[in-house]
Structures are given as structure tokens and as C-alpha cells.
Description:
Structural class: alpha+beta
Order of helices and strands: HHHHHHHEEEEHEEEEEHHHHH
Number of strands: 9
Strand content: 15-25%
Largest sheet: 9 strands, mixed
Distance between the termini: 23 Å
Helix content: 25-40%
Number of helices: 13
Shape: elongated
Strand order of the largest sheet: 3-2-1-4-5-9-8-7-6
Radius of gyration: 26 Å
Amino acid sequence: xxxxxxxxxxxxxxxxxxxxxxxxxxxxxxxxxxxxxxxxxxxxxxxxxxxxxxxxxxxxxxxxxxxxxxxxxxxxxxxxxxxxxxxxxxxxxxxxxxxxxxxxxxxxxxxxxxxxxxxxxxxxxxxxxxxxxxxxxxxxxxxxxxxxxxxxxxxxxxxxxxxxxxxxxxxxxxxxxxxxxxxxxxxxxxxxxxxxxxxxxxxxxxxxxxxxxxxxxxxxxxxxxxxxxxxxxxxxxxxxxxxxxxxxxxxxxxxxxxxxxxxxxxxxxxxxxxxxxxxxxxxxxxxxxxxxxxxxxxxxxxxxxxxxxxxxxxxxxxxxxxxxxxxxxxxxxxxxxxxxxxxxxxxxxxxxxxxxxxxxxxxxxxxxxxxxxxxxxxxxxxxxxxxxxxxxxxxxxxxxxxxx
Length: 404
């Protein structure tokens, strides 16, 4: 009988969690005093429960705690000696600071950063490009302020906005910031620490001329879109070379007004590139402080924003944040941080697998075999080959049985 060589001494869930250095985790626990208010449910047990709930698509506290208790014997080697009851787990979500889980994400990102590159090439331009965007997650009650009109029934829902900074060379965000959904996007720009000659890409929701002026002074570049109702003065028409596609219909130097920190009105010179999308019959107005590149290069830079949109789509498709394990702001942020950590861990695994597999298939496959004792990478790479061998062997056995 055909034997599989992909068996492991640890279940798939433990192999995924094994990417996290326990000593580094414990160091963060001490640094953030993460066990100060939650002594019964330690930070490690809390973290394991949260990852289990996300990877297993749990929708309630009871489902998490009972599931962990049922699989407790398979988690002993992870150091999980205590499975918290529902009330203790709920209390930990409310009291343990979400900043601790943010620190865990940051530590993991820095440790695995060299393996997260999207391109095998040493592309120095990509390393200098940073994509900025946000996604809004609707909440079941008015925990954080949301935008829009108050419903007729008087019951309003909340919303949390997740701002992300993604390096174009990588596949996971390096900086995350939370605000309520009603907060304007441009407030996130002030929290960035971009260096000279780096390039920021973002949509027109982040308009902030004062920040643009600071970046221009520091030789930090950006590409965004100009609002349709923006007020500006044309200074110069820039010739578009013949080898540039006809879609680029205008290239100009313009001047906009803004107020500095003291409230004094200032002028800022920027560049406006107009692009016509023939397929969608739409006009795009790009705004930038990059003067050396061609109009086509500016358009191609902005097009790279799709990468962060794909990241948000990946998160929402594979780890849908529709059910939260707490009705307070801290618990909601903890769940989002742990979702980002799960996304990071699966991205690391995807990079280590030789066989090409989509992110969604990887997550789905791991979820189905979460507590199977198979080596995850071998199982994905060899499952079809092993099945064909087994099928071929059974076919031979049937032929021998009925032979002549």
C-alpha cells in the first residue's frame, strides 16, 4: 500500500504558528506589560485563540473557546496549557491593549521582510515607491463614528477605517493605523516618515496641499489625482513627445494656494497630467511634484496603486471581518491586528512553496486541514502527484486481480 511521506509531528495549525518566535513574543509581552490585567488568560493563550478563530472562521466566543478546548491535546507542544472559558476570553479582548498585537505584527514584518519581496529582481525604483490607502469596515453598533445620514429607525452603525502603507516591492503593509470611519484620510499623511527621493502614491481622498509643500521642500515625491473641483492657475504647458501614447492629452505646470501652519497663504507649483481612458471613456487628472519623468511614467506610477486595492480585496475575501468577538473598540482592533498577522503568516508560507498556488487556495487548503498531521508545504506540492501514484497502483492491483 502506498505510504505518504508528508506526515508531520505537528498539526498544520501548529506549523503556521511555529513561524512566530516564542522568545521574541515573550519579550514583547514584558515590554508592553501585556499580562498585567489579564493574568488568567496569558498573552500567548489569548493570541492562539485569536489566530484559531480567524483561521477557522469562528463567529462567536463560544465557538472559539469550545473549539480550542476540543483540540487542546494537539496544542500542548505550543505551550498552551490553559484554554480560557468564554467570559475570561471576552475580558482579555476588552482589557489587553491592542497596541501589543500591533507590536507583534511589526516584529513579524521586520523579521520576515527580506522574504516578502514581490519581485525577484533588485528593482531600486520599486523599493522607493510607497502606496497609501484605506479601507472601511462596518461595525454592528455605533462604537466608532461612521459617515452618512442617521437611519430612519434611529439606530446607527459604526465604522473603523484601516489606513495602510505598502511598499511596492512587498505584498503586506509595513504601517497600519486605525481611525473611526468619519476621520478624513489626509490625517494619515502626517504620521508617515517618508525619506527624500521616495515616492508616495495615493488617491484624491488624501488631498493636503500643506503636506505636499512639505514633501516638495524635502524632495519627497508623490503622485495622486486632482479633485474635479480643485482651484488652480496654469503656469506652463509642457510639450508631450510624439512617442507618448495619445491617451495623454495634457501636461501642465500649475500653481495652487494653501495655508501654512501659521495660517499664511502660500503658493505651491505642481504638475498636472491629464489622461483619457478610451475603454471606460473617463478622464483622469494626475497631480504630482515630479518634474523629471514623462507624462506616461507618471500615469504608470499611479497605476501601481492597484496593488494595495488587491491587498484589501485579499483580506476581505479570505478573512471576512463581519463578526467581531467583542463589542468594544479594543476588541475590534485586536481582531483586525490578528487578521493582518494571519495574512502575513500565509504570505510567508506562500513564498516558501515551490508550486504556484493562489493565496485563496492556500488559505482554504490550510483551513480544511488545520489539525491534520501533514507537513503543509509537502502536502500542497505533492498531493496531486501522490494521488496519481495511488490511483495508478490501485489500477494495477485491479488488473492483477482479474488477470486471465
